[in-house]
Fold this protein.
Amino acid sequence: MDKTKLLVDGKRLDGRTAEELRNVRIETGVLHEADGSAYIEWGKNKILCGIYGPRECIPRFEASPYHALIKCRYMMSPFASLEEHSRSGPSRRSTELSKVIREVFENLIMAEKYPNTQIDIYLDVLQADGGTRTASITVAAVALANAGIPMRDMVSAVAVGKAGGELLVDLGKEEDNFGESDTPIAFAARSKDILLIQMDGLLTREEIEKAIGMAEGAETKLHEIQADSLKRHYESAGEKKFEM
Amino acid sequence: MNGRKVILPGDKVTNGKVSMPGCFAEGDSTFAAVMGMMDEEGRFIPLEKRYRPAMDDAVVGMITDVRHAGYDVELNLPNVGFIPSRDMRTKLELGDFVVCKIREVTEVGDVDLSDVRRLPKGKVVAFPPAKVPRLIGKKLSMINMIKESVGDLLVGNNGYIWISEKADIPLAIKAITMVDEGAHFSGLTDRVAALFGKEKKGE
């Protein structure tokens, strides 16, 4: 059988080069009642993020007198992708993603300033096309900045993987499903700390080093997009965003 | 924005360790922890801020629980504030609006209140705490102007604004929204004055 190639003459399925990101657009402050919010369109991914808190910790026995509890709920809508996602309750996948995203922000938020409270990060994937965890981290950082929750740093994430025998930045769904490896990496913008790295499939030691370098380059671009979105929001204050 | 640079969390504010609201020091530099901008004197102005209760702040709140020992007050905070009954000469009821002073904030964020005054009938609206100084203005200029045109209103440090029933509530909300949306642009007082001028002509 003739297998469709993921890489032809250095061009990928959607015509991108190996180091090219998909189109990323972030809108800040889209929800009225949330303390902070943002919406991202990353290629065909569409994710809405709302931040609530610091607010009273429920259940009370979970509260810590030393720091705020950070809670994250990543949810993929039942209509988000071609595959059946059935009911949108917690699944093995969404529990894992909620945990890794929460741990990224536990390293950034100055939770010690708000004892006995919780900060909620709600992430709703409206449309999925590969790389929702990286897009979720990128949009949640913008929403947290919009909420005014003190953070040590901004963060953005991108996946680097191997498909068609080559290292590629920002894998799409097909490259992820039929490629050899997928490695999402989250970088703090200032300190360049790696806050998340998960390897699915196999990469050699040399490939990992190269992948981290490629991710760092892409993440500089992503940080600019985040900064641009936030600046646009604050500089155009007073203009209505979604006027019907 | 008048050419002022917007600063993101994690961006460098100045060299050297300086104590400023919404900032933190790391190594030899000071970094922003929240969205903000720099003013002409090199100070950091936070654009987003959660209300942090401080001693002697005047706050507006609503009674959410009546108990034998005292009252719980909703103050735009994760925890409720508390008014002990023994400090009160009169009784308060569920849903009453009060203005009070913060007597003490414990290290876990519990708020004790004193100098309680029950507010007459009116409406309470929420306002971003980061913009409260702008609503008050230099030497109360903004708030006095709004009061002159719409009637009695009260701004709490926690961002809750009580507007008297007798005041022109729609006009007050219009003016407050205007301050909210234009808080980090200059010439705001003039624009709010123009709003009141227009309203008077319309009558």
Remarks:
- DSSP finds four helices and 14 strands in chain B.
